[in-house]
Amino acid sequence: MTQNPAPATTTATEGNTPPATPWWRDAVIYQIYVRSFADSDGDGIGDLRGARRRLPYLAELGVDAVWLTPFYASPQADGGYDVADYRAVDPLFGGLQDADDLVREAHRLGLRVIVDIVPNHTSDRHAWFREALAEGPGGAARARYHFRPGRGADGELPPNDWESVFGGPAWTRTGGADGEWYLHLFAPEQPDLNWENPEVAAEFESILRFWLDLGVDGFRVDVAHGMVKAPGLPDIGRKEQAKLIGAQVLPFFDQDGVHAIHRSWRRLLDSYDGGRIGVAEAWAPTPERLALYVRPDELHQAFNFHFLTCPWDAAAMRAVIDESLASTGSVGAPATWVLSNHDVVRHTTRYGGGERGTRRARAAALLMLALPGSAYVYQGEELGLPEVVDLPDAVRQDPAFFRGDGQEGTRDGCRVPIPWEGAEAPYGFGPAGSWLPQPAEWRHLSVAAQSGDPRSTLELYRSALALRRRLPGLGDGPMSWHATGDGDAGVPEGVLAFSRPGFACTLNTLGIEVELTVPGRPVLATAPLEFTGGTVRLPAETCVWWEV
Ligand code: NOJ
Ligand code: MG
After folding, report:
1. Of the candidates 268, 299, 330, which is a domain's last residue?
2. Is 530 designated active site?
3. Which residues are near ligand 1 (CB < 6 Å)?
4. pLDDT of 454-479, one tens digit each?
5. Residue 408 is among the residues annotated as catalytic for this protein
6. 207 in the same domain as 181
7. Which residue, of 82, 195, 228, 390, has the fewest CB within 10 Å?
8. Whole-angstrom distance, CA of residue 42 vs CA of residue 22
């Protein structure tokens, strides 16, 4: 239906016939959290038409692709990650034509489009689950999910000790006379599918084809590490299991069996032209296990949550960068870098908030965009938005908040609709209101307020993304660290410094200024610099890009 954009290739190395790099190896991908990006119809909820109208902003910002969070038909028990119909657009967000128009318009602007796919679970309103409830134990409809009798004399105890990521047991008992329980690793409104059932795999293949035929450039695969459960659904034997996610293999996460699914999806993606990709949202205990998701015959990328969760500390950052490059490199995949998304506290706030948080966030952005591989930008981070930490309970919608002990209810504060322009809320987000209230200070952080101000975070991102396209050493390709220590060549402890072909990046993570030997011509800095002879004074928590 729609045309894919002309392959935007970049050159990794200078030479006579530079090899073409597949677009996704160094793409900057902008995450649109649809309900909070732009509202076209005044219901206070962002939608596909609103997003389409704002695409020129993203093309001008200089990103290569957008990732849209789920806009499918859904009761919205978990912000659309509870899908009732994978081939329909929820009326909240528009219709199928709007999805088609958005993809076409993005391609016209040279932007690729990745959509979210949610294969681990459906909504409890999905036709399959309604059928399963109606049908009763033992039937084919129940076999698409994980239904089990309970333990205890009357089956009054859950079938095993698994906990929901959002808190509480991972099992809910059906109201029916049969008294079976069903598994949901997330909210009770999100029953887990049984991927051992070939019907499930066949249905998802058909859903992927539906969106690929419509022209999308790929999928962000939700809970890509969770689709297969250990045989027999064994107990874990301890509480607070959410704390183990990403730290060890669990009987419900990062099971080896998931890789067969990703392999089959890769074959499907490769059967389409135009470089369609799959991106794993996978929480794996180590970079090595994460790399298994991006082996040559599996998905193309995986989010690097080890980078996201890394503390503000030079040694820790360097270790994560090295591990990430080594592990993805060992399977020939590009590294990816991400600082924020719709599930975590925005990084200005994570880094300490206030002026310090902003300073660090700006420096981290330049670090991220200078590293080899592909980077993800979460809407509003280019405006330096902080987490909204004082939302009244009455407006909160995150199921994790209501289930309490799970993800600590942190996820509404990063989902507040973004400010575009004007002195009053909703700051151009839409004609009227926004589903979560925006802080009054955000009028100073809007796109319009920051545009043209060379000191603004927005202009920093614009410059960085423009340079990333202009400087051949950035994106895919090699990097090497500068030696640390005393003496002429060494950089002080607490400073991260590395070279890429024709380029250098220096990041002072310390709270005090440091002096460095000038490594080249400064092309971008997160704070003003002072030069004396051959040295530069790098202010506290500042990052500088140099052309060498
Ligand atoms: C990860 C998504 O990013 C998150 O928002 C969602 O709640 C869970 N997966 C469950 O689908
Ligand atoms: Mg709307």
Report:
1. 299
2. no
3. 78, 81, 118, 186, 222-223, 281, 342-343
4. 999 999 999 999 999 999 999 999 99
5. no
6. no
7. 390
8. 40
